[in-house]
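Need residues for this backbone.
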């Protein structure tokens, strides 16, 4: 496809207000990069996005559970085999816990291979009386607090593409090349088992899984599903110049797909009904998510469905709610009731992170593990009360032993936060906290 046709194809959003876009000083440089990106190979295939849509349809129908997780913001200097493997391992372990302990198929989607752009609540950051443009993710500018680093640089879009490609390549290798084989269920835990209570709890469950696998094998059953794993990539579709440059016509169907990731979501700050982000999301056929925060009215939720899922196709639209632990029990029921009454089949997923952020006395942005847990609990209670399906969780996590969220089994205290606080943006659950969460969610699911 040439640059002109893709420009016109994926351009329905261009005349609309687009929130949270970088202020590029050199628009010609931007155009040069995006037109090159238009010629780059797709990162994912339309057929894969369709397959994820079918899996999410099972979630919407109540037959499967979505586990979506990864960094708040990926960073270019963290694209390493060790870090990607650790993240994947954590997600695979959580998935094994959920699949075995809750006996539900788990759809696994990373916040990975494209999660480089951040919406910010404030356009500038002030330190010691000096104000500079906010850091908006490695795809836009640099985190260093200097005027130069904070200038949006379109070359970073190209780096995002290459970082995403390298990450996805490794993820594909791990998930299909034997590493994700269920018989590796112990290996994912090897470096962890002796050092943490959640690691030991996991080890006991892994032994049970092993026994079940041996039993099945002795019976002559060894299905292909045990030897590799279906894993999908997702990120927030924030930078529309990048997403549009990676939007292509699918030769099979003639429809548009954003080939930068299997699933994309629209964030809480960019989901305006008359804005560019929703228009862009409406133009593509990937499964899409929308973050739904505390101000969302049932009317807005219904209007989002009309815009994004006019055909009422299960799997197309996922609502990712992020209300805060103290409000979810009040705010979620009217939304779920009205949406359900409308006949729409969305997947409901709980983001227990973004409504529970606060600043500790030390100045670190953090979250309490107990609040995260309580929001998930509230989410399950509401759905149970209404007879609807709690479709999944959307979490910020890392495979490394960071100290960014407080609490959890290996209790991290506010005074510990400085020890390993490494996030490029929001605080993430570490591996032990992630596993703890998976065990607790499995219990709630079995409820
Ligand atoms: C995020 O997912 O990192 C994020 C910014 O979330 P939200 O749009 O819900 O605030
Ligand atoms: Co975040």
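Answer:
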């Amino acid at each position: 496809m040439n640059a002109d046709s893709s420009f016109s194809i994926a351009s329905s959003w261009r005349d609309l207000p687009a929130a949270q876009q970088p202020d590029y000083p050199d628009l010609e440089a931007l155009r040069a990069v995006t037109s090159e990106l238009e010629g780059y190979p797709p990162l994912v295939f339309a057929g894969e996005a369709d397959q994820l849509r079918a899996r999410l349809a099972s979630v919407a129908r109540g037959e499967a559970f979505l586990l979506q997780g990864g960094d708040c913001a990926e960073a270019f200097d963290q694209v390493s085999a060790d870090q990607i493997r650790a993240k994947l391992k954590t997600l695979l372990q959580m998935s094994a816990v959920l699949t075995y302990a809750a006996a539900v198929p788990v759809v696994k989607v990373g916040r990975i291979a494209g999660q480089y752009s951040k919406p910010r609540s404030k356009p500038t950051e002030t330190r010691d009386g000096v104000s500079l443009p906010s850091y908006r993710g490695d795809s836009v500018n640099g985190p260093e607090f200097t005027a130069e680093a904070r200038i949006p640089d379109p070359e970073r879009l190209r780096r995002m593409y290459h970082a995403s490609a390298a990450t996805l390549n490794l993820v594909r290798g791990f998930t299909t090349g034997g590493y994700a084989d269920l018989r590796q269920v112990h290996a994912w835990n090897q470096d962890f088992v002796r050092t943490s209570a959640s690691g030991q709890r996991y080890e006991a469950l892994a032994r049970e899984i092993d026994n079940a696998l041996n039993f099945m094998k002795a019976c002559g059953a060894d299905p292909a599903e045990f030897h590799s794993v279906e894993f999908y990539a997702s990120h927030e579709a924030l930078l529309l110049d990048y997403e549009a440059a990676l939007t292509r016509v699918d030769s099979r169907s003639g429809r548009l797909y954003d080939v930068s990731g299997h699933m994309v979501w629209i964030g809480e700050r960019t989901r305006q009904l008359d804005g560019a982000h929703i228009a862009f999301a409406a133009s593509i056929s990937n499964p899409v998510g929308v973050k739904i925060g505390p101000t969302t009215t049932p009317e807005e939720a219904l209007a989002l469905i009309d815009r994004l899922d006019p055909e009422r196709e299960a799997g197309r639209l996922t609502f990712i709610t992020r209300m805060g632990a103290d409000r979810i029990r009040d705010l979620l029921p009217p939304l779920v009731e009205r949406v359900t009454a409308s006949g729409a089949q969305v997947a409901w997923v709980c983001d227990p992170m973004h409504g529970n952020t606060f600043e500790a006395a030390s100045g670190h942005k953090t979250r309490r593990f107990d609040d995260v847990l309580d929001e998930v609990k509230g989410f399950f209670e509401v759905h149970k009360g209404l007879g609807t399906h709690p479709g999944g969780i959307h979490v910020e996590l890392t495979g490394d032993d960071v100290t960014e969220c407080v609490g959890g089994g290996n209790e991290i205290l506010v005074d510990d936060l400085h020890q390993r606080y490494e996030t490029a943006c929001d605080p993430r659950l570490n591996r032990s906290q992630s596993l703890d969460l998976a065990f607790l969610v499995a219990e709630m699911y079995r409820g």
